[in-house]
Amino acid sequence: MNFRKQHSIEPTPMQLAPLVDVLFLLVIFFAVTFQYAKEEQVMDVSVPAADSGKENESRTVGEIIINIKKDGEVVVNGQTYTTDELLAKLKNIIVMAGTNEQAVIIRGDKATDWEYGIRVMDACQKAGIYNIAFAVKKPEGEAAAPAPPK
Question: Which residues contact 98 (CB under 8 A, 6 or more apart)?
């Protein structure tokens, strides 16, 4: 004889409140992340124009944007670095990433001397970074981009 009552356990309906909370947090996270990524593009660095310039459709996750201002000041993530400090930071990033395929974008002001750009490229080379790109913009008109010398 079975004197125990058989209770059927009803399935619990899906809880929407925690799902909405998680989605709301994700929206906040992506909005804040987008704002910081956009901040690198807003710096007062006027990149030169080039015919091969194009919109940045695809960006590599974790890429480093190195800004070189008119006076040669090197800025990464809003912090100013000397050449030695930049080299130490790049070496640290390579160690943390565990690969030398780290992407670096150099945004040099068009009024910057080549000397400063060469110093940054040299620091990248010493750190073991060879995936380097240069930020340029599309020329606004034919008069904006001078013809190459013949």
Answer: none
pTM over 0.70: no
CA dist 77 and 73 (Å) reads: 13
**What is the mean pLDDT of the segment spanning 34-46?**
61
- At residue 49, the 3 state secondary structure works out as strand
Amino acid in position 88: A
User: DSSP assignment, residue 108?
Assistant: E
Radius of gyration (C-alpha) of the chain in whole angstroms: 25
Classify the C-alpha dihedral 48-49-53-55 as positive or negative: positive
Cβ 111 vs Cβ 46: under 8 Å: yes
What are the backbone dihedrals phi and psi of residue 43, each rounded to the nearest 5 degrees, phi first? -55, 155
